[in-house]
Amino acid sequence: MAEVVVEHIKKTYKIKKETFTALSDISFSVDAGEIFGIIGPDGAGKTSLFRILTTLLLADSGKATVMGLDVVKQYKEIRRSIGYMPGKFSLYSDLTVQENLEFFATIFNTTIEANYGLVKDIYSQIEPFKKRKSGQLSGGMKQKLALSCALIHKPTVLFLDEPTTGVDAVSRKELWEMLHRLKRDGITILISTPYMDEAGLCDRVALFQKGRILSINTPKGIIKNYAYPLWAVKAVEMYQLMNAILKEPSVESCYLFGQYTHVAFKNRGGEQAILEDIIKRGTYTQVEYHPIEANIEDCFMSLMKD
Amino acid sequence: MNQFLVFVKKECLHIWRDRRTLFILIWMPVVQIILYGFALTNEVKNANIAILDQSKDQATLAISNEIAASRYFHLIKTLYSFKDIAATFREGKTRLVIAFPVNFQNDLLHTNHAQIQIIADASDPNTANMLTNYASAIINDYQQSLLKNEQLPYTIKTEVRMFYNPELKGAYNFVPGVMALVLMIVCAMMTSIAIVREKEMGTMEVILVSPLKPFRIIIAKTIPYLLVSVLNIACILLLGVYVLDVPIAGSLWLLIAESILFTITSLSLGILISNSVRTQQAAMFTSMMSLFLPTLLFSGFLFPVENMPYALQVISNIVPAKWYYIIVKEVMIKGLGFGAVWKETSVLLLMTFLLLAISIKQFKIRLS
Predict the structure, then answer these.
(1) Last residue of a domain, one of A157, A186, A218
(2) Roughly what angle, to the nearest 10 degrees, separates helices A116-126 and A169-184?
(3) Does B18 touch chain A (CB under 8 A)?
(4) A149 and A253 share one domain
(5) For chain B, where are the alpha helices, taking DSSP H only?
(6) Which CATH number goes with the domain that contains A254?
(7) CB proximity B209 to A under 8 Å
(8) Tens-of-pLDDT digits for all 306 residues of chain A?
(9) How far apart, in whole angstroms, are the C-alpha atoms of residue A193 and residue A179?
(10) Nearest by CB: B10 against A76, A103, A109
(11) Quick check: B12 contacting A, CB < 8 Å?
(12) N or C: which terminus of chain A carries fewer CB neighbours within 10 A?
């Protein structure tokens, strides 16, 4: 059953007479108990979408339901049973860790003890600092506390707006592990992130750009749909090599990816010969090249071009 | 109910943890009362004067002595010619010059007609007026004393009695004024800032997505400030009674009840402001411009409303502090009961209901 349904949602902002489209005709649905990732760069419209779904913002047009409830008309019912963690740290920095959690537990008519099991994994890590004011926590601990506060009332649907931004690699991993445990508890999770590498941890992802959905699929499905043969190339004279590759007509795209340059070819067959030919024509040292499987970011790059 | 209480507790913690603001909230009324009580007063004492005495006879010396001995004046200079007068004023220290012509006593006793010139620095018209009045009164006293033994055929003697404030103390006027001012600032400005802070910090976003009713959020946010205000009222009254000797002539409970009503009016104004601004600075600025200044100018505490042009008098009616100021004066200074202030009380009540209704209706259940 679809827990979150979005149909033709449009949202524009007016900033100094200039109209700026945050979301243009977005439709998708999220099944119950799914981790649905919304992946896109900054300014893709992720936060606007989350605010519309959490009843904080009205869309210009279109319809959306959460747990079958209309986000405009039945906002009160929705607010009672969702958890929302905004992208910006939104707790009381002058209250202690424990006071914050207690506050959010009480306004949702519950207690920390009642749902302690739900937040235990993550809250136990910040519990040693429970007397510390939340403003004095590190970035990662702040996010853990914010997540605990969003979870303390056992929401049916959890909206997490960029929970991993500014969080170290270890904490990110822990956060994702916890999300998978929550999923087993039957909580539906919508999570947005600018990090492509997190897409693989979602059940399904929607790739967002400039208010449009480029693709919705499982992470595997998105990779499977990648049409081009892909090679990774490396050399000391990377810049010259990239320029040479870009001039080659059979190359679809070429971009830096970590230490390597990823090269996508228009047609399958003969890629190695083309590469060798390019390398022969210049003087490059320590050249390396090998075919690779596309990852989400490659898919995103190619979708963005279309 | 539990939700509501935890919100109030949270709000109290915010105030308690922000020691600097709390300090200001508690001390502001104390400092204001002490400032107005001892430093900022429009009574004139020890004004510097100079005397130009061209006759130096018994009468002029007697008058000069009387004036110099009075607590209103302080003789700093003796002048010798009319030319010196302008120069003395230009120095800026002297507020008043008293000039006796030659043959003063002769003229007085033989022609029954003597003249004294009183020249005042009227760049500050109120002070100039007051000083010339004081000087004239002293001269009249002297004249009376000359006639002590003679029977005048017709005399009208004015018996003046200053009701409610026999000593003409400024404190009787400004204690009610400071009460209005302090309550307005603490309640309206602090509440508006407190609500806007949640918007600015992004916490509003989270509490909106909760089952809390907007109405309760508002009320919960105002309660701690109501408590601080009650503390302020107590502080001001204690200082007024025990330090400045302003008695509470009427019912203390009526005074407190009216003060709480005014506090609620101010709180509703604060909520209204917070609805329409986005940043704490804007909230502060709006409160300053729309509350602090009108309270200062239109409550009648610094400038009598009756002296204002008609248009401004009409405007002064929408300033809640004006009504509260009237109520406090009637109850505290004149000792009148509820019967004397029911009209003003109804105005405040009506304002409060209106403001609360508007602000609750306007409270945004979503982010704009």
Answers:
(1) A218
(2) 170
(3) yes
(4) no
(5) 2-17, 19-34, 58-69, 83-91, 104-106, 125-146, 171-183, 190-201, 203-208, 214-242, 252-276, 280-287, 293-298, 310-316, 320-328, 338-362
(6) 3.30.70.100
(7) yes
(8) 688 999 999 999 888 888 888 898 899 999 999 999 999 888 888 899 999 999 999 999 999 999 999 999 998 899 988 999 998 888 898 999 999 999 999 988 888 888 888 888 888 888 899 899 998 888 888 888 998 999 898 899 999 999 888 788 888 888 898 899 889 989 999 999 888 888 889 999 998 888 888 889 998 898 888 888 888 988 888 888 888 888 888 888 888 888 888 988 888 888 888 888 888 888 888 888 888 888 888 888 888 776
(9) 14
(10) A103
(11) no
(12) C
End of a domain among A218, A236, A264?
A218
Whether A183 and A230 share a structural domain = no
Choose the mutation target among A53, A92, A112 for the interface with B, i.e. most B CBs under 10 Å.
A92
Q: Which amino acid is at B107?
A: D
List of domains in chain B: 2-40+168-362 (no CATH), 47-146 (3.40.1710.10)
What SS3 state is found at B124?
coil
B155 vs A: CB within 8 A: no
Span B95-133, pLDDT tens digits = 899 999 998 888 888 888 888 999 999 888 888 888 898
Asked if B13's CB is within 8 angstroms of A57's CB, the reply is no
Quick one: A138 and A8 in the same domain?
yes
**Number of Cβ pairs < 8 A linking chain A and chain B:** 77
* CATH number of the domain encompassing residue A71: 3.40.50.300
Closest chain A residue to B214, measured at CA: A76
Q: Are residues A187 and A40 in the same domain?
A: yes
Identify the closest residue of chain A to B364 by CA–CA distance: A56
Domain extent, residue A277, equals: 226-305
Number of domains forming the structure of chain A: 2
A113/A255 same-domain check: no
The C-alpha of B26 sits at a distance from chain A's nearest C-alpha, in angstroms, of: 20
Contact B14 A51 (CB under 8 A): no
Residues A58 and A133 in one domain: yes
| CA A5/CA A9 separation, integer angstroms | 10
Which residue is associated with the tokens 């990774």?
A232
Q: Which of A80, A103, A149 sits opposite B211 (nearest CB)?
A: A80
Nearest CA in chain A to B216: A107
Q: Do A94 and B207 touch (CB under 8 A)?
A: no
For residues A39 and A48, what is the distance between their CA atoms, to the nearest angstrom? Answer: 13
Whether A277 and A254 map to the same domain: the answer is yes
- Say what the pTM is: 0.78
Query: CB within 8 A of B195, min separation 6: which ones?
Result: B218, B221, B270, B271, B274, B275, B283
Q: Rounded to the nearest 10 degrees, what angle do helices B280-287 and B252-276 cross at?
A: 130
| Host H or E run for residue A304 | helix A296-305
Q: How far, CA to CA in Å, does B242 sit from each of B34, B182, B234?
A: 12, 19, 12
Of all residues in chain B, the one with the smallest CA distance to A133 is B17
Residue A276 and residue A200 share a domain: no
Q: What is the ipTM of this complex?
A: 0.79
